[in-house]
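ingest -> validate -> predict -> emit
validate: passed (alphabet ok, no gaps, 718 aa)
predict: started
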Amino acid sequence: MSDPTKRISELRTLLTRANAAYYQDAAPTMSDSEFDTLLKELAELEALHPELHDSNSPTARVGGDPIEGFETLPHAVPMLSIDNTYNEDELKQWVDRMLKNTGGSESESALFEGSPEIGFACEPKIDGVALSIRYEQGRFIRALTRGDGEQGDDVSHAARTIRSIPLTLEGDSIPDIIEIRGEVYIPLSEFLRINEARIEEGDEPFMNPRNACAGTLKSLDPKAIASRKLGFVAHGRGELSDPEFASGHQEFCDRISAMGFDVGEHRTLETNLKGVLSSIQHIDAIRHDLQYATDGVVIRVDEFAQQDAMGTTSKSPRWCIAYKFPAERKPTRLLRVEHQVGKTGKITPRATLEPVLLAGTTVSHATLHNYGMIRTRDLHEQDLVEVEKAGEIIPQVVGVILDQRPDSATQILPPDHCPACDAPLEIEPIEAHEDPTLETTRRCMNPECPAQIREKLVWFAGRKQMDIDGLGESTIDQIRTTDIPLNHFADIFDLHKHRDALLELERMGEKKVDNLIAGIEDSKSRGMAKLLAGMGIRHVGATTAKLLARRFRDIDELRSAALWELMPTAVNTMSQAKREELTGSKDKLGEVYETGLGADTAPAVHEYLQSRAASDTFDQLKQRGVDLTSKDIVDPSETIESPFAGKTIVITGTLENFTRTQLSDQLEVMGAKVSGSVSGSTDLLIAGEKAGSKRTKAESLGVEIWDEDTLMETLKKS
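emit:
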């Protein structure tokens, strides 16, 4: 057998070079399949030899375990923003000022003739997220966002998944410390794919690639980040231990390019205003063909010594400016509005427009985002509207030309019931300090809405919900391509009637089918808490479902308790006793009997529980033998005596004797309330191995902290 240490080192070198060849040189040295095969081999070897772990291995690109939160750290050198201009006169004034500051002529002709004393580096302004990446002895240390310029969030977990960011630097004379600054971007093809999926799911599309990129970087799950294929273009420096490394921006970019960074392809070095304007015109002409969104051109004084002499203001460097391209806007007719239902139940209005050529493509549809936006912009069908591409990508209606409104224009009214299933809708208002008549979202409350059902079925059968062995995502998809009915929760419990048809499916032999049927039968006895958590009812997650199951003996009792006129219009006027029955009260029931619902969320849950859709769902489940009674009921007259009773507890880190779910269940049975975040009301933090930011926050708040040994000792005595 070959030496694993040697083979791991060989694979890491091969894959690192392949990444550089692909992302920096655009000259791949191996096929995607070959790359994936070698990456899989490396991952398997690293799993067998954890002693050879390296956080900068190419396997880090695929993402690791989710992190718990972000740590904010100071920048070694502040990350300042760049001043913007939108017109040539201001740009001319800036170039003139730079010439004078470097001893150039003050004559008008000098602007166009230039000066041998100064150079201007011009490059596309990428509409991305600024990042500062620190290397020490050529190894990736951390990546920070801009933040407030003085300090930023540590997003190293995200940066490691970006293949165009080297994890180890190659070449000679690498400084002991070097911070590379640049823009993380989301490729436009990926951006369009993500938005198509979001629209299909009923979510608002991202307004522009930058929003999508920022949201991705702030994900806590590296695997989710890796799936979005972010890119990175370097364009600046932070801390640099070697002052002789480069004399100017152009030389700096050349040197870090040799180390493995993508520094962009369209930088030019100009000496006068004429050259700067020519560079702007060139970038404007080719920007729609680039793989990233660009909203302008960055122009900077090239020489570092001149930059240092010019200095900065409190917010921006004096030696740099961004010329921004104006967004293209055109009028067209808003023909009609469709109300689309996504798989999460969110209703999204979508405009159909008379086709119009905008920023190089024909636009015939535009998102209207939500009904509050329609109301504030006073949009009507048949209006002549102005359309703009946000970030040069997403068409949006930015206004109406009121003086050209036709007599045939009709008001756009939001639906009051789901367009797909006619179930009641929940309306989410905007912030309280804004106009209360506006809103952000309408959402279908029926978990068996046809527009949502596929995702609901997957969730319902999941391990933490009904835990139906054998009914995973691929099996659900496979069954739904056939004539076997699988459109409602109740259909799951009829699958045994279709055994012969199931046996005809690919990769569904007798053993697998019988195990599936047995798993479905077992799930019938999970009880009310698991059932409610699995149904995907808005505002009713696992914790709230469990709290409801402690308060109410079965579904019928829960639904009867909610009959007390707990409607949205009556929330603020109903009696305290009625409010407490559904929303919970520490004084009346004790903390363990809280339902997790409040005045804002209880009405929406109540309305669903009272709906015909809910009644039909529960009736069908009961007919099929699904247990709708509580396994968690607690007698309010009984006092739970345990060292955890009445305490709010947070669990963090890796535990040897429990999963977090197992420990949460046990602590809740003993009277605790288990929370997901540390706050001033937290009584106890249980910290396992690799406890992160939650432990730090608990220490700062003076929260009591137990390790697993203390926990086990206490449980033994209880």
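Confidence is low (pLDDT under 50) at residues 563-575, 582-593.
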